[in-house]
Amino acid sequence: MTQHAHHHGAHHHHDAHHHGHDDSELADTLDLDAKVFGPYLDELIAWVQGHAPRAPRTVADMGAGTGAGSLALARRFATAEIVAIDRSDVMLDRLRSAAREQGLADRVRVAQADLDAAWPAIGAVDVVWAASSLHHVADPGRVLRDILAALNPGGLLAVVEMDTLPGFLPDDLGMGRPGLETRCHQAAAQAGWNAHPDWGPHLERAGFEPAGQRSFTIKPGTAAEGAVPPGAARYAQAMLGRFRTALQDRLAADDLDTLDRLLAGDSPDGLLNRRDLVIRGSRTVWAARKPAA
């Protein structure tokens, strides 16, 4: 993961705040992101653990979405209480269900909050995890100062962002012009999707001490090799469907036609029937500490 207080990847949540009827669709996308990118999430959290206080008591997931991050944090920090923060009832309901299914309900509590209004009154925390969520708040500087105030001395904040939106298509699809997905990503970037800065200077301005920064790149595999995880075709369908709906004014007519063919569920050219899908993506994590004194 997408994650969120506002989302992805999505995980989560990639282009706009989620509200009302959009929540269920976005929650589905976040769940697919967790299926496809879960192993890399575990690797990333293991790296964060190396910078975190030993045996943290409380870990907060800022913009928790459907809970992929919260539950991975619960597994990694086995003695900590996880506080999952999100403003969406739909997201938090899914998160509660997932926690019950995984036997983690007694260690995960939820806090419904709009981070644009205020940081929730959840008490002091030792680790804050903010995946694909910080770039969506209206005033990141204020939220960072709120997080600093909430952390115990020596506590850690981990900010995670997708470097680019996830990629699934080969350059040449055997139909349409090569480079369709590249053009979709360019149009999404022009529309401001997944726009975020280098958080390092922002963290320092808020009063944090840098602890580390690292990028995690997904090693691509293809469906033909059996290396594409379950859910990848459906995730690709969700992402390309969002491109088709939200970016139609920014894409050429022939590219829209190709997207329609890819999105047709019963077409041999459709995403669900292709064997040439790949998984591409990378995420960067910034780790920073509250000064110990």
From TrEMBL:
GO biological process, one term: methylation
Native species: Nonomuraea zeae
GO molecular function, a single term: methyltransferase activity
Keyword Transferase on entry: yes
Superkingdom classification of source: Bacteria
Compositional bias annotation for Basic residues: 1-19
Protein name as catalogued: Class I SAM-dependent methyltransferase
Start and end residues of each Methyltransferase domain: 59-155
Region (Disordered): 1-24
UniProt-listed InterPro entries: Methyltransf_25 (IPR041698), SAM-dependent_MTases_sf (IPR029063)
Keywords: Methyltransferase, Transferase
